């Protein structure tokens, strides 16, 4: 496939227009499959951030005053445009992230379109309630929060931008979105598309930058809410800064999620779940089930089947639609993952598959499987964010649940079993925000997605997201005399 020119017109999108300011720190986009430079942008200077916030602040009242069905229509039109342009947008996402086109065609702009369609549909139904109080009565109004800030990670840039923008805009908020500095491109496309779909200038703005640009956004008094997708250490900083200004937060952070495979499970299904939960997007997914606990009797059949299935890996140019396994996003992520693999070897885990950098240009690491992993090993405790699957064994249900929950993280958890009651019992016992029975890592827009414990706070997707982008105002209505003590 001929590679298109993906250099954007300008680094930022503010008040309905592409804006450049070359005074900011350069941001270089490289193709993870080759290391070549593809585009060059600039981080926002404080003046650019101020301009974006001013635009969002100015646009918010007008946007919130629209009839909700009109706001919804804009979002649904944007969803249609995303779908019409899915191929081109997927190519950009592949070049920016290194993820195979086979994946980006079905999981990035299309997932973003689902969010815009879903929340566009909900916009007109977001009312309050009537509360009878004898003679008097009260009613509630669901109001927007104001200007929201979205800060993204690099693994699903378009999806993250849409999962934040869609509920925020549906509720009548405006947004200033800062993509990850590693993947700045697709959010600019979303901003253009929203304007094309009829969003007034200033409703959705994009500023590029590193952490300090995010920090400036959070520290600004005009911002009412911060939604971050990122790591736990960044989440701590962002939550603390938001607390200073008493701002609303959504924290979609990292994890070390467990997947339990009981010996009564369908082993093929469980292996498929483990592949989806460890190797899709080369393992760069927050909710990955990287601690795969397999009941002792199923252990060797599970490992045998997993080894066989790994022969189906097609590693290659991510733009080739046959490729189903791509590189990591950049060199530093690759080095980090290789460091974890070394730790696994050093601490005595048994290497069953992979374990090395691939001898080709770009940042490819083999799909790696360790067996005989114990709970105290580094690879069983820390988020790797790469294609490294750890297999641990267990004997009883009680033991598996206890060990699965023994982590500061709480994003996701999965169970494979053919025992219906056990499936629900285990899901109920998981201390995680998003759980799966006999599947893994599926995130339909209708289902709330989010975390507990250190993995975060708030929910994206589903009706639950509305609670995190709106607030309830109560109005008491006195219908009779006002009695006072004097
Ligand atoms: N729970 C989820 O939905 C979800 C989804 C995808 C990724 N993640 C997590 O994201 C992480 C990988 O992404 P990453 O490496 O881009 O994360 P990161 O924490 O390094 O960066 C995330 C974003 O925060 C910004 N940032 C950094 N410091 C900041 C500060 N002080 N103030 C404001 N913003 C700041 C970055 O520029 C970036 O845009 C993993 O931990 C992964 O689990 C979570």
Automatic annotation (TrEMBL):
Domain Aldehyde dehydrogenase, residue spans: 25-475
Enzyme class: oxidoreductase
EC number(s) on file: 1.2.1.8
Presence of keyword Manganese: no
Tree of life domain: Bacteria
Any one GO MF annotation of this record: metal ion binding
Annotated keywords: Metal-binding, NAD, Oxidation, Oxidoreductase, Potassium
GO BP terms: glycine betaine biosynthetic process from choline
Record SUPFAM superfamilies: ALDH-like (SSF53720)
Coiled-coil zones: none
Protein's UniProt keywords contain Flavoprotein: no
Residue numbers annotated as active site: 252
One of the Pfam families matching this protein, by short name: Aldedh
Protein family per UniProt: Belongs to the aldehyde dehydrogenase family.
Name this protein carries in UniProt: Betaine-aldehyde dehydrogenase
Organism: Tranquillimonas rosea
């Amino acid at each position: 496939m001929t590679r298109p020119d993906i250099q954007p017109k300008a680094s930022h999108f503010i008040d309905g227009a592409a804006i450049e300011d070359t005074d900011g720190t350069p941001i270089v986009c490289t193709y993870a499959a080759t290391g070549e430079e593809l585009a060059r942008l600039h981080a926002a200077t404080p003046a650019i951030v101020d301009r974006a916030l001013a635009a969002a602040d100015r646009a918010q009242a007008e946007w919130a005053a629209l009839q909700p069905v009109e706001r919804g229509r804009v979002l649904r039109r944007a969803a249609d445009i995303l779908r019409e342009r899915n191929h081109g947008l997927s190519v950009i996402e592949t070049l920016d992230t290194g993820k195979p086109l086979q994946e980006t065609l079905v999981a990035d702009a299309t997932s973003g379109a689902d969010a815009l369609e879903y929340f566009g549909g909900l916009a007109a139904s977001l009312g309050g309630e009537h509360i009878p109080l004898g003679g008097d009565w009260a009613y509630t109004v669901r109001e927007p929060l104001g200007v929201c800030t979205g800060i993204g990670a690099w693994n699903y840039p378009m999806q993250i931008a849409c999962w934040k923008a869609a509920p925020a805009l549906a509720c009548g908020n405006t947004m200033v979105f800062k993509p990850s500095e590693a993947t700045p491109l697709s959010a600019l496309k979303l901003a253009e598309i929203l304007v094309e779909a009829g969003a007034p200038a200033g409703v959705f703005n994009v500023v590029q930058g590193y952490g300090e640009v995010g920090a400036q956004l959070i520290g600004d008094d005009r911002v009412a809410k911060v939604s971050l997708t990122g790591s736990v250490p960044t989440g701590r900083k962002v939550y603390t800064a938001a607390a200073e200004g008493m701002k609303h937060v959504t924290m979609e952070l990292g994890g070390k999620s467990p997947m339990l495979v009981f010996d009564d499970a369908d082993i093929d299904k469980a292996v498929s779940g483990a592949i989806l939960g460890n190797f899709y997007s080369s393992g760069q997914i927050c909710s990955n089930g990287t601690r795969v606990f397999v009941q002792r009797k199923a252990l060797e059949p599970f490992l045998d089947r997993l080894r066989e299935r790994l022969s189906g890996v097609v590693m290659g140019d991510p733009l080739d639609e046959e490729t189903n396994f791509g590189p990591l996003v950049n060199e530093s992520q690759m080095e980090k993952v290789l460091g974890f693999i070394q730790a696994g070897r050093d601490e005595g885990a048994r290497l069953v598959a992979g374990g090395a950098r691939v001898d080709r240009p770009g940042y490819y690491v083999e799909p790696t499987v360790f067996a005989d992993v114990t709970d105290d090993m580094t690879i069983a405790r820390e988020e790797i964010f790469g294609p490294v699957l750890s297999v641990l064994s267990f004997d009883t249900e009680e033991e598996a649940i206890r060990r699965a929950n023994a982590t500061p993280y709480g994003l996701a958890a999965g169970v494979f079993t053919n025992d219906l009651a056990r499936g629900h019992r285990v899901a109920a016992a998981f201390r995680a925000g998003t759980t799966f029975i006999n599947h893994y890592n599926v995130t339909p827009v209708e289902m709330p997605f989010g975390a507990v414990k250190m993995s975060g706070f708030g929910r994206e997707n589903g009706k639950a997201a509305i609670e995190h982008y709106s607030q309830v105002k109560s109005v008491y209505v006195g219908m009779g005399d006002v009695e006072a003590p004097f």
